[in-house]
Amino acid sequence: MLPVILFLSSILAHVHPGAGQRFTREILTGSDVILPCDDGAGNPTTLAWSVNIDGNRRTLLLVANGVLNQLSPPVTYAGRLQLDGTKDLHLRDVTITDEGEYRCNAYPYRRYAITLVSLKVYAQPMAPNITIYPDDVDIDHVPVGTNLTLSCTSNNGRPAPNIVWTITPNNRLVLTEPSLTTTEASEGLWDVTSSISFVITGNRVTYDIRCDVTGPGPITNQSVAVVLTSGPDRSAQLSTGASVGVALGVIAAIAVIATLVFLLVRNGVVGKGFGDTRSFEGGFVNFRMSFSRHHKDKSDLSRSDVQPSAPPSDPSPNRKQQSQEARTNSLQKPRPHYRPPETDPSMFTSTPRDQSYENYIKWSPSFVLYSKESSVQV
């Protein structure tokens, strides 16, 4: 009996496909599929299912006189084949390697019937994801002028999935030319990455960015979206804030100086004599201020280069006439000028010379800002 079955399967497997039907089946990996067979007149006496593997046709199932025989099918089909009814082939848990052309040869009562079924196997890609560069950007506040790059990746698809970008700022579509990278992850499966780059131009604009992954046949389209909101450059805001802070500091300093001057005038430091020290306390700042004027030693007035400013008065009866003559002589004489002694030049170091006096004035201002805990002298 076995030799007869082998002989029939050999004949049926090599019959040239003449009149018959052609079908196409598309299925996702992991699913079950039923391949149809047209038996012509019905109730075939002999039926054989075969598949073309690498150019070689291999018999999967043979039915002769109602008896099912599995003639050592390829190992990859083990445990996954059975007839659905009397003629259709039921293939369970489809894999990528199951893709190919299947043929059913039926020998009914009067003629042969041949059915060709093209099986296409697809792989549903993984859910896409979007990555943003720079990766530290705050999507709720993207500074104006930022150059963004967004990448959408979908892995393990068959065939390689298609990626379509949609960018809608304020409900207005923006078209951009993406870059596409396709790599083979494993046998028959593909990873795809699509990237777009654009510059944030509008302030307070909401960007609705969507990545759609599509594929043929039974592949389910998938989408992922991200929402970006633009805003002013925070660094510029910080710079403006720093400038305002400096300006406020300057204004505060001017106010303090003006207050000090007011207190000096009110307490009589300015415009009064020298050589004294004034202290003031009030508010959050306490200060002490002193001025001193240094005169040259009186003994220096006896030097020969210093002339009296007026001749001594002559006790005579006509005092009015003598006084008038003394004033006239005083105006005609040059005013004496004092020169610092050469033996002690450090005595009047950095001391301005006052042409209207016979002595020199040395100003020594001293400011002391102090509190209960500490003091600072300026």
Automatic annotation (TrEMBL):
Q: Which InterPro entries match?
A: CD80_C2-set (IPR013162), Ig-like_dom (IPR007110), Ig-like_dom_sf (IPR036179), Ig-like_fold (IPR013783), Ig_sub (IPR003599), T-cell_Activation_Regulation (IPR051713)
Q: What is its main location?
A: membrane
**A Pfam family recorded for this sequence:** C2-set_2
Family annotation (Gene3D superfamilies): Immunoglobulins
Annotated protein name in UniProt? ICOS ligand-like
Q: How does it sit in the membrane?
A: Single-pass type I membrane protein
- Identify the species of origin: Branchiostoma floridae (Florida lancelet)
Gene name on record? LOC118411292
Which example biological process does GO assign this protein? cell surface receptor signaling pathway
